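Hey L., structure's done. Input below.
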Amino acid sequence: MSDLSLHAALIGGLVLLAIAGDYLVTGAVSLARKFGVSPLVAGILIVGFGTSAPEMVVSLDAALSGSPALALGNIVGSNIANVWLVLAVPALIAPIATGGFGQFRALLFVLLATAAWVGVTSVMPLTPIIGVAFLLGLIVYAVITVTQTLSAAEKGVDVGIDDEGGVTGVKLWAYLLVGIVGLPLGAHLIVEGGVGIARKFDISEELIGLTLLAVGTSLPELGAGIAAALRKRADVVIGNVLGSNVFNILGAGGLVSLFGPVEIASGFPNYDYWALGVAALTLALFIVPRSRISRLAGLTLLLIYSVYLYGLVSGWNILSLFGGLYG
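Output:
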């Protein structure tokens, strides 16, 4: 691609992300109201899973093309970006309330999925058996999320359903379609240009996966998160991040594993897995005490993400630090 084409792809992708993100959030909240489930559930299952489609497609394509480091770097890097970037930017627009109905359960699945990923891949390659287990875990997560919310609503528990206006009928499904199709398409335009430039400078696949691909395929989540923040839908912002992080590991990771064995790059446990764990715990620091994610907190998260990227590029090795302390 020429320089002009790269710029056109980047601008067009950003515009498409903004429009599609707004459509997806509006459609998801309207669909939640239609079926009597909370906007959090819509954020997890529709926005979170829908915006994670790029991670799944990119990771699977990379694995099938013989680039497992690119595939796994995309999954790990996206989950880190979802917390320190995708959650941070909407908080700069409007503070995000946490601790609502269903968030603790969703957080538990994020922590369990993260622990399972790090624990398994640190000692063995990803295999088809692990892939099946991950995919079954994803199905269980989705079923529990919906059934628990419907059961609570039937018992009169406030699950966050409101009577705000939205879209209905054919328009509702059109909004969802535009959002789910438009977000990955916009991300693809941005990712294609970024990866093309990176490869011209001979940057490693692992680094591309953890940075350009991770951020690029997290752009749908970011677009949806910004749209939700502008509409004052904190529950959708939180659900988007929680659902996406579970789907990335159990869904995208599960599909990649089916074509295993897939070896993990040696650098992941040295640095990136530490960041992945801290990112998951960052969610807990807000959700468990029901703390509001303020604009200052959003800036702090962006600063943490900047430090992570600097360490990544600089080749930081956390394990070596522990080795120095105890060696």
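The CA atoms of residues 134 and 250 lie 5 Å apart. The radius of gyration is 19 Å.

-- N.
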